[in-house]
Backbone:
């Protein structure tokens, strides 16, 4: 194998979701953000009781409904039709965000544009000058949940790092991220910076470091 | 005898003035008071400030613009307080063109600011948004080691509400995820107007199961419409 | 009749309650405070739909229950057992006080120790030095309701006036009272001071003024 | 499988420490977690701060002191945050004697401060209490022409809750006026312990009718006790 040939394959979107799902234990109350985080729900075995929250007032989401058995009154924060798990409850938006902001969620998993080594997260805007602003519940979740995990590609489409010393995009919240799942690695945010928990098979630490702006800790 | 039912859309919309602050609940069409929005379009009030969680999806060629987006397209909205403005949406275009002013804030802060108005809380601190663009120009104070933003209540002149069931005292029940912002906006407005799928006799809704007590409701219009559709 | 003989009789507690009840129109949402205000409920004809609120989360109280038909789970803010009217609703304490503090009650009627001509109310304590403090919901009601009426004896047991230029007891709330029903008169609080709405039969304006510290307006 | 039911009072009370802040709901015995209070008396934690709406009626000769008043009588309470301290009550005597510190605040402010803790609001402004003794030492700011007091959230280590029905996820339903402070304290505490009259299978409580979602509940003890009595 030559030095230029890569001996590894980055995880797919589903692969990242499956990897994150492994680490969610029974009994946790979890909010899954839009995009790849939502896919995590498909990878939690139904017998493992993880209670999924959605910002629009649903606690205890079940799997996606079968075709033609959809209840049009039940959707999640991504506007997808959902089912309720036995034991679910429904609340209004202020109560739903009391759950989020009051520190009651064990975990929220968000998508990200950039994560900094101090845990800063940028996931909603590429520039303060953008007219279109889509904040939604991300800032509330990032600040409120007991743990904030981010699932994202390790680098941008044109190869720029997303694992940074400091975010260049507008922040969602400061010092909030506790762990990052990328298509190449799992990283913990520690007081000393990003600590590598695992790397995809075949990739070396230095290959991962080369794709990260922040200095990684073994 | 108290009877909050009105017999026509015109009666429901009576008195909404130019310049009013109007709250519109709903989350992706579920719990959205679409008939009342159409009524407001018809009624003609302009120069509105609208408080609404999401201002609509990008335009799709060939798909008719309806609801809040139609109100914007007609030039009737001056300002929007929201958590989502999407590029390519009618509202996003209007914001870009400078014809609509957008105050875009976190969704939880939006919900809490509406509740605060209903509960007599003029302002509160929250860590949400600290160290971000949404804190710009706002007062910051530290509590328990966290920087918190001072946020003010959002009061409205009018709230439009979609209920599943209502009685003549204005007691309401919502269905499924259709609750969302409905109970909050009902508390925060001077005039709360409800469209309801079903009409109940007084007492048919058990006291424990009333989701919005009639004290928050002024007018109810029976409007049996279909189930919510997913947005295109 | 000699000048020292009085040609009038002050209203009883029930008389005051009945007088206040006359002025409560159908459709109002009303909180009746502890004591004489609670008696007002007995004087509202059942066919007049007035919706009574109690701080402990009851909206739509009905008449007192018949003996042996009491529901031990239903009480009012005075800890008396109550019934629910058809159309009633039950909420938790924060929602109940959102009703109060959010300005949704058309009226609350409170007992009083003293009312001042600017509408200041003192009804919970005789001295800031008192160890026992019984605030309850009075401050919330006084500040939150659209109208605040006070029902009280016109003078104290030892003949001291309660209708004052300025309260001497600790305040419940400032500038909140809109109308006072005493056992001698009905008084409106106006920007110019107390305006006499009516006096009990046989009592003259000057007799009422003699029992009031604040200057009354005809 | 999530199962929040505990099998004994000792298990329910496990880990409550000296110096804890304990919230006790109930309104004149309705919705009061009396069995859990007895459990706390038995358990032994002292130096407690108790958050409770009313601290009890005056002593009646010949009537046994129970509940919160008994906890005070045993010298286990250091501070109380409440809206009522009555002269001649056990708590009133202790406050007079200087053995218990009382923070007496308006009932609505008490409810809102508890909710604030549960909802992640560290502080809020309210017009209630402005220009009164309860505003002493507190920050004042004017909103819409009214003087408002800055009030802080009240967090607790432990909440004791009385429910009518509960399932193994901790979803709760309250009965009649027994709801009162129960849903609020459940949100505001690190550890929420529930006594319930009835046990439900998961799913027996319809999603729309859950009053306190299980996320706010840690332990549930089945305690079928009688109806609440009126206080003497």
Residues:
């Amino acid at each position: 194998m030559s030095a230029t040939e890569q001996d590894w394959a980055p995880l797919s979107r589903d692969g990242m979701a499956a990897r994150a799902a492994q680490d969610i234990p029974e009994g946790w109350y979890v909010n899954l953000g839009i995009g790849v985080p939502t896919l995590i729900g498909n990878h939690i075995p139904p017998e493992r009781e993880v209670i999924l929250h959605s910002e629009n007032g649903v606690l205890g989401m079940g799997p996606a409904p079968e075709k033609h058995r959809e209840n049009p009154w039940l959707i999640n924060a991504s506007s997808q039709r959902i089912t309720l798990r036995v034991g679910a409850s429904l609340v209004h938006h202020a109560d739903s965000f009391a759950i989020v902001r009051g520190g009651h969620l064990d975990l929220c998993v968000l998508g990200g544009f950039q994560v900094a080594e101090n845990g800063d997260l940028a996931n909603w805007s590429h520039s303060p000058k953008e007219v279109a602003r889509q904040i939604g519940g991300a800032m509330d979740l990032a600040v409120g949940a007991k743990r904030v995990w981010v699932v994202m590609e390790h680098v941008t489409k044109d190869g720029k790092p997303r694992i940074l010393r400091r975010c260049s995009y507008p922040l969602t919240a400061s010092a909030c991220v506790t762990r990052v799942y990328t298509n190449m690695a799992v990283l913990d945010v520690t007081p000393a910076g990003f600590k590598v928990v695992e790397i995809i098979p075949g990739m070396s630490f230095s290959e991962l470091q080369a794709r990260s702006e922040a200095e990684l800790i073994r | 005898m108290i009877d909050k039912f009105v017999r026509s859309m015109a009666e429901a919309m009576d008195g909404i003035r130019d310049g009013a602050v109007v709250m519109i609940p709903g989350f992706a069409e579920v719990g959205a008071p679409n008939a009342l929005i159409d009524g407001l379009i018809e009624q003609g009030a302009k120069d509105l400030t609208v408080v609404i969680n999401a201002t609509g999806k990008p335009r799709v060629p060939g798909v008719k613009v309806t609801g809040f987006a139609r109100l914007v397209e007609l030039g009737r909205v001056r300002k929007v307080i929201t958590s989502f403005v999407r590029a390519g949406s009618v509202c996003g275009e209007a914001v870009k063109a400078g014809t609509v002013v957008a105050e875009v804030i976190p969704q939880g802060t939006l919900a809490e600011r509406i509740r605060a108005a209903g509960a007599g809380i003029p302002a509160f601190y929250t860590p949400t948004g600290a160290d971000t663009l949404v804190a710009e120009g706002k007062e910051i104070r530290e509590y328990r080691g966290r920087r918190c933003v001072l946020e003010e209540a959002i009061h409205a002149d009018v709230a439009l509400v979609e209920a599943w069931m209502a009685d003549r005292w204005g007691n309401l029940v919502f269905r499924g995820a259709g609750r969302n912002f409905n109970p909050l906006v009902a508390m925060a407005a001077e005039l709360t107007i409800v469209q309801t799928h079903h009409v109940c006799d007084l007492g048919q809704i058990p006291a424990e199961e009333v989701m919005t007590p009639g004290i928050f409701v002024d007018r109810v219009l029976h409007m049996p419409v279909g189930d919510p559709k997913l947005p295109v």
In short: Chain D has one domain: 9-124+154-222. The longest helix of chain D spans residues 107-119. The mean pLDDT of chain D is 97. Residues 18 and 46 of chain D are 5 Å apart (CA to CA).
